[in-house]
Amino acid sequence: MKVVKFGGSSLSDASQLKKVLDIVKSDDTRQIIVVSAPGKRNKDDIKVTDALIKYYRNYINHQETTENQKWIIERYKNIIDDLKLPQTLLEEIKLNIANLSSLPIEQNDYLYDSFLSEGENSNAKIIAEFFKRNGLDASYVHPKEAGLIVSSEPSNARILPSSYDKIENLATRDEILVIPGFFGVTKDDQICTFSRGGSDITGAILAAGIKAESYENFTDVDGIFAAHPGIIKNPESISELTYREMRELAYAGFSVLHDEALIPAYRGKIPLVIKNTNNPSHPGTRIVLERENNQSPVVGISGDKGFVSINISKYLMNREIGFGKKLLQILEDLNISWEHMPTGIDDLSIVLRERELTPIKEQEIITRLTRELEVDTVSIEHHLSIIMIVGENMKNHIGVTAKATQSLSNHNINLSMISQGSSEVSVLFVIKTQEEKKAIKALYQTFFNKH
Ligand code: ASP
């Protein structure tokens, strides 16, 4: 049995839904279907979820919501009419969308989540009906009925471990189950969503819960590319990746999938396959626990901007017991999360995301480091990027880092820092953001020999 999730762009209109029907029909193990809300039909369009946010905002500010409701209902009406589905279904959806504006505003922590969930909920009903009328034995299943009981954290729900027992029962059902993604219900019966993009999480939880043969995640690209297609023209698509490699790539800029979605699938040892609704015969990218080490050492190159480095030096730092602890205590006191800490003998840098700092926090760090730790120098460097070369197989190859640094130096790119964890899944370089694209191109040319 496979769990299959379709993203918003795969469900944006009737023609996309016909592709989805064909995909589900072509493999009778595709039995649990998780759906997003309708996404954009073109680049200027609005996702239904975003339209629901506008509707919510107007409602809580006591502004007119008729236009908001009309726009959302029209989206579903177009789909229902184009697929020749019954008007009673449209009436039901109309009512549900309109009823959102009679929910209590005061003392209702779940109001926002109730609005947003209606995007996937209505879509799941339409898709189940469409499947039924086209020869599939399909049923719509509400997340509550599916057993998706979540923590009481509005817009940031987490699945309760006890849910898995009930979810497992879904495996005993024979028909195709169409389940809205993105939300569950709390123990007190409140609708509570995962974070944005969270339909991926629903799919991963269900796949782990029923111990699916695989979790197929259908989107609008041919899987995961070896480098960002906005930087490298027609990059190679990766056929197989391990979860660890995916995690490393996702860390620095690869965002095909919600990163939290990897957790249940990883723990449940479920292979995850990223596929393209618009090109379903393409094998896509398979993400597995382990893979044969017969691939090239580097599977992907990622890059992300928005990093800052706090550079500290102090003569004889290496002999001072507790220096690191005191330094990290300062960051903890300021509620700052850090990412990397490359060190020298008498110097040390802390690399963190720019969003963790404010001018006031920066000043506080400098003051406390100077006063409490008596450092010789401290400076904060902005506009940095992280570039990562990723591949589990690097550990079996000598000279990968040498090749990468040679390539960067040939292109005149200065490396501020290099870091490699002991597992050797990735090598990380810190460079100036203005050189990020150039660096990714240089490394792609070196390891994939393309451009
Ligand atoms: N519709 C939700 C969002 O746009 C969830 C999802 O599509 O995964 O965030």
UniProtKB/TrEMBL annotation:
In Gene Ontology terms, what is one molecular function of this protein? aspartate kinase activity
Query: Sorted alphabetically, which PROSITE patterns does this protein's record hold?
Result: ASPARTOKINASE
Q: Which reaction does it catalyse?
A: L-aspartate + ATP = 4-phospho-L-aspartate + ADP
Q: Which Pfam families match?
A: AA_kinase, ACT_9
Q: In which pathway does it act?
A: Amino-acid biosynthesis; L-lysine biosynthesis via DAP pathway; (S)-tetrahydrodipicolinate from L-aspartate: step 1/4; Amino-acid biosynthesis; L-threonine biosynthesis; L-threonine from L-aspartate: step 1/5; Amino-acid biosynthesis; L-methionine biosynthesis via de novo pathway; L-homoserine from L-aspartate: step 1/3
Q: Which UniProt keywords apply?
A: Amino-acid biosynthesis, ATP-binding, Diaminopimelate biosynthesis, Kinase, Nucleotide-binding, Transferase
Every copy of the Aspartate/glutamate/uridylate kinase domain together lies at: 2-276
The cross-references to Gene3D superfamilies, in alphabetical order and at most eight, read: Acetylglutamate kinase-like, Aspartokinase, catalytic domain, VC0802-like
- Domain of life (superkingdom): Bacteria
Q: What class of enzyme is it?
A: transferase
Enzyme Commission number(s) from the entry: 2.7.2.4
**Residues covered by the Aspartokinase ACT domain:** 387-447
What is this protein's function? Catalyzes the phosphorylation of the beta-carboxyl group of aspartic acid with ATP to yield 4-phospho-L-aspartate, which is involved in the branched biosynthetic pathway leading to the biosynthesis of amino acids threonine, isoleucine and methionine.
The similarity comment for this entry is: Belongs to the aspartokinase family.
What name does the UniProt record give this protein?
Answer: Aspartokinase
Instruction: Provide the species name.
Output: Streptococcus pacificus
